[in-house]
């Protein structure tokens, strides 16, 4: 009953991205947008992406921000465990656990989908100095070509996972929740854009990563909310 009440109140959180999904697919499937946006970062004479091994891109935008995302999740888990030691934190126990599960689950889901994906990273495509043919989302690869396992964008999901704070706070602290949503979206796109500059992903990989993470967070929010309270009227 409570789940049905939450669906009536917050079902748009799931319905909106479901309605947008066909449009996202059409934009990237029927236009050269991915290739156009990644073209400035590809050096044709050397058949490579010059930013691929740049120290700033590798050490900060990739490894550094990935570590930051993992550190936030670990801090949430630590905070949850401390609620059993620090009485003042007990009221936040469910929220802290929810935030940890949301961040970890969202990134894990993207990782699982990525491992089952046939699509290749740009730097593995023949037109960018690699070996594999370009394939669209639902297009089958030749049997002689191994799966690329590069879709959706895994790195960007670490930034998008911070959108969990939007769902974790929206029932009690609406303004911080909106700020968390903007931060999560901005960080996810920044991390994804850096991967585009390195030749690791197309924009579509990152957009679908945001979609997957959002859907997971919204579903978790409806099924197991961060607060054991009655829905707002």
Provide a short characterization of the protein structure:
The chain contains 9 helices and no strands.
* Amount of helix: 55-70%
Rounded to the nearest angstrom, the distance between the terminal CA atoms is: 15 Å
State the assembly state of the protein chains. single chain
Radius of gyration (Å)? 19 Å
Q: How many DSSP H or I helices?
A: 9
Low-confidence stretches: none
Helix and strand pattern: HHHHHHHHH
Major beta sheet, specifics?
Answer: none
DSSP strand tally: 0
General form: globular
pLDDT averaged over residues: 94
Q: Which structural category fits the helices and strands?
A: mainly alpha
Features:
mainly alpha; 233 residues; 9 helices
Detailed description of the structure:
The protein has 233 residues and is mainly alpha-helical. The chain has a domain at 2-26 and 55-117 and 152-223. Helix content is 62%, strand content 0%. It is built from nine helices and no strands. α6 (154-160) runs antiparallel to α8. The chain starts with a helix and ends in a 10-residue tail after the last helix.
Layout of helices and strands, plus pairs?
Layout: H1 2-10, H2 12-30, H3 33-38, H4 55-82, H5 93-115, H6 154-160, H7 164-169, H8 174-198, H9 203-223
Helix pairs in contact: 2-9, 4-5, 4-8, 5-9, 6-8, 6-9, 8-9
């Amino acid at each position: 009953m409570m789940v049905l009440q939450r669906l009536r109140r917050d079902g748009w959180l799931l319905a909106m991205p479901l309605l947008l999904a066909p449009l996202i697919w059409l934009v990237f499937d029927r236009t050269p947008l991915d290739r156009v946006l990644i073209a400035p970062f590809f050096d044709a004479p050397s058949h490579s992406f010059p930013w691929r091994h740049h120290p700033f891109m590798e050490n900060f935008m990739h490894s550094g921000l990935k570590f930051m995302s993992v550190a936030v999740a670990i801090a949430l888990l630590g905070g949850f465990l401390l609620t059993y030691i620090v009485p003042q934190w007990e009221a936040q126990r469910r929220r802290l656990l929810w935030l940890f599960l949301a961040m970890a689950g969202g990134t894990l889901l993207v990782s699982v989908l990525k491992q089952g994906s046939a699509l290749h990273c740009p730097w593995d495509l023949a037109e960018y100095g690699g070996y594999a043919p370009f394939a669209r989302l639902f297009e089958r690869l030749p049997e002689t070509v191994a799966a690329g396992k590069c879709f959706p964008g895994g790195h960007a999901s670490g930034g998008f996972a911070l959108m969990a704070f939007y769902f974790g706070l929206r029932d009690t602290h609406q303004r911080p929740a909106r700020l968390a949503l903007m931060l999560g979206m901005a960080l996810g796109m920044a991390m994804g854009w850096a991967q585009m500059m390195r030749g690791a992903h197309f924009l579509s990989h990152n957009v679908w990563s945001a979609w997957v993470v959002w859907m997971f967070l919204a579903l978790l929010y409806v099924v197991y909310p961060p607060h054991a309270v009655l829905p707002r009227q």
